[in-house]
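Notes from hallway chat w/ T.B., transcribed later so I don't forget. T.B. wanted the structure written out for a chain they're using in a teaching module, and asked if we could keep both sequence and structure tokens in one place. Agreed to drop them here.
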Amino acid sequence: MIHIVFNEADIEALAKSFELDGTLVGEIIQVKDDYAVGPLKNIYSEEGMVARKEWWKEVLAGGDYDGKVETGEVEDNKLVSELKEILTNDPSEKLWIWAAQNKHDVSGYYWLMSQLGDFQGRIFILYLNNLPFINEKGLIFYPEWLHTIPAKEFVKAKKLARPITSSEFEIDPDEWNKLCNDEKGVRLLEGGKKLSQHDYNFYDAELKKYITGNWQTAHKIISTFLNKATHKTGDAFILWRLKLLLASGEYDVQGETKKAKDFEVKLKQAQPETESSPA
């Protein structure tokens, strides 16, 4: 059995459940890219893959994750090739895709399953959509992220595993292709598995609310955004958007605008009007 997750924190959380239920034991593999943001045009072609990598290079340039694209750490396309090889060579192997109710997981689900149609009946989905779980304090909650579920709840969640249906293998890739061809840069989860798309500047208006008349580090502005905004995304994407906002010249900046802790931002103070000289 192979388990697929979409967040690094999910790996440890799921692995803990193996100690409670040996039938869950299997390799855990993470799909690492965040398909809820960025270009998707021709995503399965060499041209589309290169375009996406170039976009990520631009987003991460100078920031805390600068150079990460070049390390080869994120090689999802290679991962899919390896999964296909495993499934082809071992007809008894099964793939369990774990997804919580968030845009990141659902976008990753669409990206992955659209490439696995040849293995119908062996690709399972565990989608925690509006399902109640019990937290460490014994209270009911509806997890937005897989890693927030206690290990014992993963054991219960395994009962949700079901094969992705032939109908889903027809409909879901079609929906994903429509999103890919729309050439938008931000995807939001509307409910169920429905994703809506928006322009790259979708988060800008909300981000601007946290830039005040006092100096703040970019790190603090981004942290406030991530704590308070209704719709959120990764810190690297928000840092990129903040840098683009600063390029407009509407804000005062001090420091080197690279890493979020290296520079400060505030609203530009209005310049006092100078009195004109009498004629």
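Follow-up for T.B.: The first helix runs from residue 8 to 18. Might be a good example for the class.
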